[in-house]
């Protein structure tokens, strides 16, 4: 990510208040915490006229002073309030209360893209703009900067008749800031203010206005209007447009300088569904928790049950395994890949060698002559000086020189500011092992080039061996047609699914590296306080950027197929995704330089043109997810928390997680040691799926390819004939697996083909 005024750790935008006043405010509130109280709406006593009265009464029964923050009526039933631990425990025993959960804090996961995805040259295949303009994309984020041209409503007709949303008034924001493009804007701060105290309106707008940039970037990526001549300081020049450029946008500000809080997020999702959005896009995530304890997962279920597709970022915790956020099976989980576009910059050394990297620097260049350069670790007053932390460099040893800094711990542009403040004239930012060869460009404040780990090692070898090391940095603008592309971003979070390994996540990947989109005028492109530059477009990276790509593409599919469910739309995007380049090689992982796997890319890289006509889809209803929760041994109480339904799992019925009608397969298997009481004999696992015909009558034949001999795969039947629209057919896959040592993974692919369509599903095996 490049929201550098906020603390960035490994490209995850962590919105953290650093001011002493906010820390003091938080301490003052520590005796109470915000809880979300899930209520059984059907249990309301007859003595109450409405649920709000009941909720208020339950709260007052444990606290005379507590006030309700929000009442929830759509995605969940219940309310939120600030309570002591004792008060929360007292509530838990009351009739009609399903659970009392402490709210979770969430973090943001922080143009060429339409061409790369094939949208520009295939426009005739997509729905007409009139039908797309009936689709509403709701974005939960840091708000919106409405004045930029990405929200121009020229050519759009009246707002869709079913829209019930509003343009809320607040600081620096009034109702006239909305139009026929940006049709709604709300803000939710009660949970945040309950934790941190009142918002400081000297530094932050208590309104839908975006003072950060992240929300403007994600909303315009999903559905921004086309803007000719867009660029960042001349980089990535061209027409910038959202994936669904004619769709309407509704913005829900839930993230503030101190973070994004579960009570606010739940309130925003609740209101968005009531307002009438068709797609919800959330580029944020929390810690790993069970589905019924995750506000986003619970809210997403409520939205999905009312026909709203919820798209979420997978997280920026890669390349570590099991680093995912937002892995509930009713959420579309999006990882990040690169584009075929780069921003090359070069390091020329005193020994005549020249190395390539990337940069978005646009200021005064370095002189043509070579200048001295030093390693930060050798010109520092701390043991971690190589990281160029604030105040760590010795100005007398840095002045007039280029400084080599290692990446990590603080934001990339912040390191450049540290070098500049110490008198340095340039920076070479070198990757360490965890970042590998991943290159992320930034609009640095001084001449800077970012280089991969191998290049960094070569530069350091010269630096440490020469008595008078010299270097300079040059910049080459924008380069198109870079290959291979895409590659998996190192930061993109990976599977397996940390809660339910039988559900493969992420679902797919989309562009998330060096993405240009709209920006706020309240802060510069780096987000640093000292960055006085102002831009209408910015280039940043993260799964925060890949998520709205899929949100916008889902809007296009919704316009083309308004009758499709959220599961059908996700299935179309997944089963048509690609996993190889044109030469047949598997998409690479930039973190390793090796072929990636379904734990990295899920079903593959999104291909929107193919997704319009997938042939068959794996549909799923609320009942399918009820069976999934039964397979997880959820109690009736926990199921009701998520689904708002009275449902008891049938005694004696065998529920299987693997039988959820999901477009991919994940198969945990027995180890050679016979874990779980086994003897090392082959494991037999069966998964059943249902395919729905959304194309012309056709006969599909199955094809299975596998990289391992340790698992025999059979499909019954091997052929499926469809004669009617929406006709459904079942099939069963049997996996017979030999025992293997723990920690082994392997992969296969199952496809249904009719000569026109390829309905593909990844298969992931893991021996644990």
Automatic annotation (TrEMBL):
CDD domains membership: PA_subtilisin_like (cd02120), Peptidases_S8_3 (cd04852)
Gene3D superfamilies: 2.60.40.2310, 3.50.30.30, Peptidase S8 propeptide/proteinase inhibitor I9, Peptidase S8/S53 domain
Gene Ontology MF terms in the entry: serine-type endopeptidase activity
Subcellular localization: Secreted
Annotated keywords: Glycoprotein, Hydrolase, Protease, Secreted, Serine protease, Signal
Basic and acidic residues bias: start-end ranges: 199-215
CC per GO annotation: extracellular region
Catalytic residue list: 141, 214, 544
UniProt region (Disordered), positions on chain: 199-221
Residue ranges of domain PA in the record: 393-459
Annotated ranges, domain Peptidase S8/S53: 134-603
GO biological process, one term: system development
Domain of life: Eukaryota
Inhibitor I9 domain segment(s): 34-109
Pfam families: fn3_6, Inhibitor_I9, PA, Peptidase_S8
Domain Subtilisin-like protease fibronectin type-III: 659-764
Region forming the signal peptide: 1-24
Main localization, broad class: secreted
Sequence similarity: Belongs to the peptidase S8 family.
UniProt protein name: Putative subtilisin-like protease
Organism: Davidia involucrata
């Amino acid at each position: 990510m490049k929201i550098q005024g906020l603390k960035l750790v490994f490209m995850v935008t962590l919105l953290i208040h650093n001011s002493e006043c906010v820390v003091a405010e938080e301490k003052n509130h520590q005796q109470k915490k915000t809880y979300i109280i899930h209520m059984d709406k059907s249990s309301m006593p007859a003595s109450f006229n409405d649920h709000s009265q009941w909720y208020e009464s339950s709260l007052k029964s444990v606290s005379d002073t507590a006030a309700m923050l929000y009442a929830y009526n759509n995605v969940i039933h219940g309310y939120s309030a600030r309570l002591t631990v004792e008060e929360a425990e007292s509530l838990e025993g009351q009739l009609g209360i399903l659970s009392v959960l402490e709210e979770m804090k969430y973090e943001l996961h922080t143009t060429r893209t339409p061409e790369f995805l094939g949208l520009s040259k295939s426009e005739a295949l997509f729905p007409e703009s009139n039908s797309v303009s009936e689709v509403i994309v709701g974005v939960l984020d840091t708000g919106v900067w409405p004045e930029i041209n990405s929200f121009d409503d020229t050519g759009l007709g009246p707002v869709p008749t079913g829209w019930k949303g509003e343009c809320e008034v607040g600081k620096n924001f009034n109702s006239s800031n909305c139009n026929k493009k940006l049709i709604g804007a709300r803000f939710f701060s009660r949970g945040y203010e309950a934790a941190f105290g009142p918002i400081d309106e000297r530094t932050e707008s208590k309104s839908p206005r975006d003072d950060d940039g992240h929300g403007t970037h994600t909303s315009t990526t999903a559905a921004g209007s086309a803007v000719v001549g867009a660029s960042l300081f001349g980089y990535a020049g061209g027409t910038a447009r959202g994936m669904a450029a004619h769709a309407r946008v509704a913005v829900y500000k839930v993230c503030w300088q101190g973070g994004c809080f579960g009570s606010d997020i739940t309130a925003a999702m609740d209101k968005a569904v009531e307002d009438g959005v068709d797609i919800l896009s959330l580029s944020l995530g929390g810690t790993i928790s069970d589905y019924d304890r995750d506000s986003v997962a619970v809210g997403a279920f409520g939205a999905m049950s009312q026909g709203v597709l919820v798209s979420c970022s997978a997280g920026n915790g890669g390349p570590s395994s099991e680093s995912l956020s937002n892995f509930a099976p009713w959420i579309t989980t999006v990882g990040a890949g690169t584009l075929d576009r780069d921003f090359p910059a070069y390091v020329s050394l005193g020994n005549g060698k020249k190395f390539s990297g990337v940069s978005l620097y646009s200021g005064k260049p370095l002189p043509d002559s070579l200048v001295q350069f030093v390693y930060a670790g050798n010109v520092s007053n701390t043991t971690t000086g190589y990281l160029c932390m604030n105040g760590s460099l010795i100005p007398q040893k840095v002045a007039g020189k280029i400084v080599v800094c290692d990446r990590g711990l603080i934001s990339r542009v912040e390191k450049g500011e540290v070098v500049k403040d110490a008198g340095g004239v340039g920076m070479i930012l070198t990757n360490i092992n965890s970042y590998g060869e991943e290159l992320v460009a930034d609009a640095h404040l001084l001449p800077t080039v970012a280089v991969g780990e191998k290049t960094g090692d070569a530069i350091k070898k010269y630096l440490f061996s020469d008595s008078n090391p010299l270097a300079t940095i040059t910049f080459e603008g924008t380069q198109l047609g870079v290959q291979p592309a895409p590659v998996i971003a190192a930061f993109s979070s990976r599977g397996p699914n940390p809660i339910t390994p039988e559900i493969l996540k992420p679902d797919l990947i989309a562009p998330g590296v060096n993405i240009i989109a709209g920006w706020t005028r309240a802060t510069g492109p780096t987000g640093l306080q000292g960055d006085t530059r102002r831009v209408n477009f910015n280039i940043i990276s993260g799964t925060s950027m890949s998520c709205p790509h899929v949100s916008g593409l889902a809007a296009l599919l919704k316009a083309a197929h308004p009758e499709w469910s959220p599961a059908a739309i996700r299935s179309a995007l997944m089963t048509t995704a690609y996993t190889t380049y044109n030469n047949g090689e598997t998409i690479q992982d930039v973190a390793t330089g090796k072929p990636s796997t379904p734990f990295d890319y899920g079903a593959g890289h999104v291909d929107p043109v193919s997704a319009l006509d997938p042939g068959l889809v794996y549909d799923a209803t609320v009942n399918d997810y009820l069976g999934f929760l039964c397979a997880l041994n959820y109690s009736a109480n926990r199921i009701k928390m998520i689904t708002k339904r009275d449902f008891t799992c049938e005694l004696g019925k065998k529920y299987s997680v693997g039988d959820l009608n999901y477009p991919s397969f994940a198969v945990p298997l027995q180890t050679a040691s016979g874990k779980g009481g086994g003897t090392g004999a082959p494991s037999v696992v069966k998964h059943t799926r249902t395919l729905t015909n959304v194309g012309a009558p056709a006969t599909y034949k199955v094809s299975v390819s596998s990289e391992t001999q340790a698992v025999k795969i059979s499909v019954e039947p091997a052929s499926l004939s469809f004669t009617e629209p929406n006709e459904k057919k079942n099939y069963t896959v049997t996996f017979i697996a030999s025992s293997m040592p723990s920690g082994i993974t392997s992969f296969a692919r199952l496809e249904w083909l009719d000569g026109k369509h390829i309905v593909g599903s990844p298969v992931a095996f893991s021996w644990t």
